[in-house]
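ok so I'm stuck.
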Amino acid sequence: MGLSTRAVPELSRSGPWAKLWAKRTKYLVGAVCLAICIVMLLPLVMSVLASLKTTEDAASVPPLYAPSTMSFNSYERLWSFRDGLPQYLANSLGTGLLTIAFTLGVTVPAGYALARFPVPGKELLFVFLLLA
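replied:
not stuck anymore, here's the structure
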């Protein structure tokens, strides 16, 4: 036996409980989005902080999460590593741009066709195209 919203007036879609529930839902969605952003950005922030550590800070026990002094020595050593880094960066940039162009070349026409014509399972295909 389930509860009907007609049997319990405080669960109806109008009234003070509905407004309270709408506010709670908005804050809950915001908190979940903020938690996801923190989980996704934390490794990036930790990587940048680790790259700014001195050699002594990087080798310290227990590990330091934030550098005591900022050092760009890692970037200087990386840039002069066998004098090939600029070529490696150019290759990676070219590969990335070609990948983006190919993805857009495939998904944009497919998205237009899905939006324009009736296709069964359209929503599922849209989500799949957005994953690319």
